Amino acid sequence: MANDFQYTGQCKEILETADARVGDKVRLVLKRGDSQEVVEGLLMPRFATKDDEDYVVVKLKTGYNVGVRIDSGTKIEITGKGTEPHFSRPELPPRQQDLPKVCIMSTGGTIASRVDYRTGAVKPALDADDLHSVVPELAQIANVDASIISNIFSENIGPPFWSKIAESIEKEVRKGTDGIVVAHGTDTLAYTSAALSFALNKPPIPIVLVGAQRSSDRPSSDAATNLLASSAIAGQAPFAGVVIAMHDWISDETIAVHRGTKVRKCHASRRDAFRSVNTSPLAYYDLIHRSLKMNTDDYDRRRKPNDWSIKPKFDPNVLLIKFHPGLSAGIIDWATATGYKGLVLEGSGLGHVSESLFSSLERAIKNGLVVGMCSQCIWGRVQLNVYSTGRDLLRIGVIPLYDMLSETALVKMMWAFGNEREPENVKQIMHTNLAQEFSDRRVIEEKHDG
Q1: pLDDT at res. 282
Q2: pLDDT of residue 408
Q3: Terminus of the chain with fewer CB atoms < 10 Å: N or C?
């Protein structure tokens, strides 16, 4: 029968009657009106809740966990006996003094997740020590220290957390670590990498942000390979600065290293979800041969942590607006009246919006708002001198942001207002290339993947 702390009430009684134990392979035949539904899989543990005790958790053959409501009419067949799954942290491997020192900072996300047996959902659970101990190959690459910054999904990470992460990184750099890995959820990973690129003023070592598209409880997980590669990059790479390291393809062969201001998540679930936009990856890490190959000579070199500083303040009063046909000018008026300091517009094509927005944009700029224009196209750059619409926007005072990604522009403007009060100074900052967030011209072949 199931353990008391896992299943309770009627659910526990039904499982006891069927002599079903956690870890057994089961076949559930459910009555759904006049029809039947069959669910097969591995019976998993579940924390009892007072709100709903009448469901069990089953791991399907796909690797996903589902909650299944059962009642006295449910037929439970045991198709195979098993043992209860559990997690126990192995001992940390011994340190090797000749290896580089790498600090893994955990913020949460899929790379630091396990299954929540209450719902079958992925939940942040593993701390940074767990991440180290469950990937024993790390002992061959670096002497790893671990710290926990937060334990939340990336959709909950914003300006206050960016500041906290930057300050935590500064402390570790001052201690003399050779590289830093920040384990982070993938959904807002590009925002955080852009934020750190501006907050950390040319850091002397690699700061490698990494996530996972599939959690470590799944057979297809990319968590271990991503963590292994990012630790090697952080400890051994010749470059300094903020990067994102994620799969270059769906197979476990190559990790692409993307500049922190020029990368976007382009797929919801694929391992190779991240792409460098309007540039090439900075480097590639070969997982098979465990070697790093630089893809360009244009990068800041690793150096001693003597002369550098951070500016970790962000002002969240900046709004990102995606232009679309029918967009109401009232949104811009609302932003002006509400106290926003800046707007980043995602215009169509070369950076255009409807002329119906012009009056509101002009009022906003006269009221001191900084308004920057990005293109909502993935590839290419804003060109406001080509068509009359663009020239009118320039006349109004909208500033072009070249080929800067809109999420990078949003973060940069938040950072600029966090450190400057005057709109003219912010405009100057937005037109200053601080972390290779924009390029002077487009020189590489554009790659469009299916």
Answers
A1: 98
A2: 98
A3: C
Provide the pLDDT for residue 112: 61
Give how far Cα 69 sits from Cα of 9, 11, 400, Å.
13, 9, 55
Q: Tell me which residues of the chain have a pLDDT lower than 50.
A: 1-5, 117-120, 443-450
How many angstroms separate the Cα of 169 from the Cα of each of 154, 176, 388? 18, 11, 46
Q: What is the pLDDT of residue 5?
A: 41
Q: Which two tokens stand for residue 389?
A: 């619409």
The alpha carbon torsion through 105, 111, 114, 119 (nearest 10 deg) reads 120
Domains in the chain, CATH or no CATH each:
9-80 (2.30.30.520), 101-310 (3.40.50.1170), 318-430 (3.40.50.40)
Would you tell me how many other CB atoms lie within 10 Å of the CB of residue 381? 20
Active site residues: 110, 186-187, 265
> Distance (Å, rounded) from C-alpha 73 to C-alpha 31?
7
Which residue do the tokens 């990005």 mark? 374
C-alpha span between 23 and 320 (Å, rounded): 48
Contact status, residue 152 vs residue 141, Cβ threshold 8 Å: no
φ and ψ at residue 264, rounded to 5 degrees: -140, 145
What does the alpha-carbon distance between residue 23 and residue 125 come to, in Å, rounded to a whole number? 21
Contact predicate 157/150, CB 8 Å: yes
> Helix or strand or coil: residue 101?
strand
| pTM given for the model | 0.80
Query: What is the structure's pLDDT at 2?
Result: 41
Q: Which of 147, 195, 150, 192 is nearest to 173 (CA)?
A: 147
